[in-house]
Specification:
Elements: E1 3-7, H1 12-24, E2 28-32, H2 43-48, E3 56-59, E4 62-65, H3 67-78, H4 89-120, H5 126-142, H6 156-170, H7 179-191, H8 195-214
Parallel strand pairs: 1-2
Antiparallel strand pairs: 1-3, 3-4
Helix pairs in contact: 1-3, 1-6, 1-8, 4-5, 4-6, 6-8
Length: about 220
């Protein structure tokens, strides 16, 4: 049986799950969930995820949400090997650190800066932009001398981070000052399996949503 995946293509966390599934060669039963129409608040969805968030998976009765928990679970449960999420404690710890950096710093600062404008029409806050710039400097430092985000091979850290970085890129944030980030970003575009379908197409959909909300 395939895994039910409740998602929206424009969502960066959802895209990280799609990228991981592609890297694993895993088939997902895609269940597009329209948040604007309240599909995440139906009794049926709340029975699956009482927190009513996406992405959410239902793997034959095993329900899980929070994208970074999902992507590590998918590798642990369905990966042919541990290359995307190494079992070695030190290597795994670096992957975990990058994932926590993504959720707690990088993507969080994107949301703090951009979402008030997109969803509430609140003017952009220059102080929050500086926090984004700081986060990008951190990531640029992490990537110094590194081919991938957590070492010399592709891991779920790259798949989570690229979903965030590509979202910065598509809304016009200038990545050029961050040479290591730019180099890494270009590499992931060409090495992550199914990148266009799993991530790039969703970025375009996110930009279309942003444009409609801000009436550009």
């Amino acid at each position: 049986m395939t895994i039910d995946f409740y998602y929206l293509p424009g969502s960066a966390p959802c895209r990280s799950v799609l990228l991981t599934a592609k890297a694993l060669g895993l088939e997902l039963n895609l269940k597009r969930t329209n948040l604007m129409a309240g599909e995440h608040m139906t009794p049926e969805f709340l029975a699956i995820n009482p927190q009513h968030t996406i992405p959410t998976i239902d793997d034959n009765g095993f329900r899980l949400w929070e994208s970074r928990a999902i992507i590590t679970y998918l590798v642990n449960a369905h990966g042919k090997d541990d290359s995307l999420y190494p079992k070695d404690p030190k290597k795994r710890a670096i992957v975990d650190q990058r994932l926590y950096f993504d959720i707690g710093t990088l993507y969080q600062r994107f949301a703090d800066y951009y979402y008030p404008l997109y969803f509430a029409g609140v003017p952009l806050d220059p102080a929050k932009l500086e926090k984004i710039n700081e986060a990008l400097k951190f990531l640029d430092t992490f990537l110094e001398g590194q081919t991938y985000a957590a070492g010399d091979s592709l891991t779920v850290a790259d798949l989570a981070l690229v979903a965030s970085i590509s979202t910065f890129d598509v809304v016009g944030y200038d990545l050029a000052p961050y040479k290591n980030v730019t180099r890494w970003f270009n590499k992931i575009k060409t090495t992550a399996p199914g990148y266009k379908e799993a991530n790039e197409d969703g970025c375009i959909e996110f930009k279309q949503l942003v444009d409609s909300l801000t009436k550009k």
